[in-house]
Amino acid sequence: MLGLMQDQPLLISNLIEFADKHHGDGEVVSRRVEGDIHRYTWSDVARRSRQVANALDGMKLGFSDRVATLAWNGYRHLELYFGVSGSGRVLHTINPRLHPEQIAWITNHAEDQVLCFDMTFLPIIQAIHSKCNTVQHWVAMCDADKLPADTGIPNLISYEAWMGQQSTRYPWPMFDENTASSMCYTSGTTGNPKAALYSHRSTTLHAYAAALPDVMCISARDAILPVVPMFHVNAWGIPYSTALTGAKLVFPGPGMDGKSVYEMIENEGVTYAAGVPTVWQMLLTYMKPNGLKFSTLKRTVIGGAACPPAMIFAFRDDYGVEVLHAWGMTELSPLGTLCTLKNKHLKLPKAEQMKLLLKQGRAIYGVDMKIVNDAGDEQPHDGKAYGDLLAKGPWVVANYYKGEGDPLVTDKDGQRWFPTGDVATIDADGFMQITDRSKDVIKSGGEWISSIDIENIAVAHPAVLMAACIGMAHPKWDERPIVVVVKKPDAQVSREELLAFYDGKTAKWQVPDDVVFVDSIPLGATGKMLKTKLREQLKDYVLPATP
Ligand code: AMP
């Protein structure tokens, strides 16, 4: 017997229509590429998203055709989020920090028909447009009078000239909720990048889940600043969850540096921010010497890479801001776990609570996960046994775009799981902790050393800005860890002092064999440390002689 409830597909157009109808006067504020601040409301977003949909119809774009963006977090990008997906096309957000050749490759692979870009990226488009074989229409995300003459890009039109004259009425089409809505290519540190292709259903379910109290706890009372880019896994779904809840949305535009982020938080009364650790490192580095405090910020979600405990302590103890540690992946839309305490933990001493809060957190309903050994046997949830982390759920990939390789593994019960490539422990309360990427694991004398633990200790030293731990070949132990360190400006610490800092903080055999000081650590397009590149840079490095 089937249930007798209304069968309404979960579509992204419903989110923006709901926002328009039920919290239309909620604010959306953006710093523009031009440097000024733009303000409007959720009703304006809805109205202009309909204009975008009409403009796409005007170009005779077909159902599921791809519309690419190369853009910062801002209001026009938000309109494309709803106008493109809502009208049945697929929004393809491209990471502008990729190499231009890689951007051209991705554009061809996705078969993008339209490419909308912020003016910051005009030089990239000028360099690659002739190599983007499928793009028919180029849209510069600016006012008509800001479009420079003679760009060399054929049929270039300004965003406002393109959509500004369109009708503000648009009957959003109804279709299968499993229809593709947006796509995002993985970071692609090895081989060519692959695309996760999200659906209206997966995106809507993820938007609900992200707003839950034990997840990002997004409400109509919040003013939210996603510093995490809209080109990186849909800004962790925040644009959708804020439309759903009616939170005020604040976009930093191109200003990701500490000063710009701080000003945006203070000027707009931001209560809640989200981003990767490198962004918050820049913010804290700017605030401390200037003696600044937050007046409204209460919570920040930090994820995308391991959040060093020192950062969690700095936010909590120096600024009274709660840090929510999150783990996710492009292939998971991205949220997998978020770290919040359970009722029974509230009576624990603060130090005990902190031990839990440093972990990546508990699975969000919708995502199931387990850890397995090399033979595929599930490992106990005791917080000690570690294994490869597998995930499944309605917003986890089943296949990559164009079916490139089967991303799933089948377990002994015939269940299909996505191997995340992370190595983790899970404790009895379900708190998951990542110890490494499987390819970054260091094995010394048959025992695993967590590079994240070694990095976290180094970053806790007051003179250390960034640290990366990598394994070096060793004749006796197979591999030994070394730590590569960037010092804070004007700070001093010697190799011996830093190694002594490990005393009592980790087992003696896990203490790195050496410290290598560098000016910078290579970062990938999403701000994560590129250990592959670091290993290349250190290919001539020789470990110091040890007994
Ligand atoms: P991406 O698909 O580019 O977002 O990268 C996903 C990968 O980032 C994960 O598989 C993890 O290796 C890493 N990652 C994300 N969040 C965290 C976190 N909180 N702690 C440690 N690693 C993380």
Describe the structure in your own words:
The protein is of the alpha/beta class and 547 residues long. Helices cover 28% and strands 24% of the residues. The protein has a nine-stranded mixed sheet, with helices on both faces. The protein has a seven-stranded mixed sheet with strand order 7-6-5-3-4-8-9, with helices on both faces. β25, α15 and β26 form a beta-alpha-beta unit. Adenosine monophosphate (AMP) binds next to β14, β20 and β21.
CATH topology of the largest domain: the name is Rossmann fold
Strand order of the largest sheet: 2-1-11-10-12-13-14-15-16
- Output the CATH class name of the largest domain: Alpha Beta
What amount of the residues lies in strands? 15-25%
> What are the low-pLDDT stretches, counting only 5+ consecutive residues below 50?
none
How many strands?
26
- The CATH architecture assignment of the largest domain turns out to be 3-Layer(aba) Sandwich
What is the strand and helix layout of this fold?
Elements: H1 12-23, E1 27-31, E2 37-41, H2 42-58, E3 66-70, H3 75-86, E4 90-93, H4 100-110, E5 112-117, H5 122-128, E6 137-140, E7 156-158, H6 159-163, E8 180-185, E9 195-199, H7 200-211, E10 223-226, H8 233-236, H9 238-245, E11 248-251, H10 258-267, E12 272-275, H11 277-287, E13 299-302, H12 309-319, E14 322-328, E15 335-338, H13 350-357, E16 362-363, E17 368-372, E18 386-392, E19 409-410, E20 416-426, E21 432-437, E22 442-444, E23 447-449, H14 451-460, E24 464-474, E25 478-487, H15 495-501, E26 514-517, H16 531-537
Parallel strand pairs: 1-11, 3-4, 3-5, 4-8, 5-6, 6-7, 10-11, 10-12, 12-13, 13-14, 25-26
Antiparallel strand pairs: 1-2, 8-9, 14-15, 15-16, 17-18, 18-20, 19-20, 20-21, 22-23, 24-25
The protein binds adenosine monophosphate.
Adenosine monophosphate binds next to strand 14, strand 20 and strand 21.
